[in-house]
Design goal:
six-stranded parallel beta sheet; single chain; alpha/beta
Amino acid sequence: MSARTILVAGASGQVGGAAVRRLAGLGDVVAPGREQLDLANAESIRAVMREVRPRWVMNAAAHTAVDKAESEPELAFAINAEAPRVLGEEARKIGAAVIHFSTDYVFDGSGERPWVETDATGPLNVYGKSKLSGEQALAATGAAHFIFRTSWVYGATGKNFLLSILRMARERELLRIVADQHGAPTWSEDLARLAAHVIGQAERTAGGASAADAAGALSGVYHAGGSGETTWFGFASAAVEALRVREPKANLARVEPIATSEYPTPARRPANSRLNCGKLEQVFGWRMMDWHESLGLVMRELYPTAE
């Protein structure tokens, strides 16, 4: 392996897939599939880490089925909490640094101001609790780490809210979308770009030091959600309108706002998912893309011949 081997866990997901492409210029990217790296199995994780001996570990994998996690908490905690701990333990032994993605769901969703990294946590559901446990477990290993809390991740591939809305807009006459949960969509590609930026910045100052030493005092929790603010209803409305521009003859659904109480789900969702990303900009000089801009880029990717 090269001196800059980067292990990407979750390469089949939205962020992981984008990261494999973005990180290619920074080192040898190793992206094992689930049959090789089973994040629900600690021994599988240890075996891969000891074989690859990466300089950087990017954990973009997670149990993200929020409602399903309520009925399978053991699996959610195995992937979201235990796996980061094992990755951290193994990384510390070899001087590697870990980039780990977390979620706004670690908060209870109260208030109206954007959350900062030092705010008290209080997850409302199993998914949020498992992700918070993963943050704490990784930090407790003593490994150098960057934990990026993000929100409402979407892109042109995988399973996400945008692609579901675009599909349902063609199939239905009416879409009733929650309008009292506030946050910002985050483009998966922007998170991959952030990871590449952080690794590149650390390596420029590393000299002959390990990645752990290069990360140094910068280790910690950062918020990395899309810039701007909207609701799920606002996001859906913008998506359908963008589709209408590209397919003016299509018979697309109307979008109607509803309250969370009108759309009950097994897992409770936070009403306030706003994230203050000022620390990220101050430390790394990185500003997350405004969700309107990223939506336009994703729509152009999905419909390249429509403009």
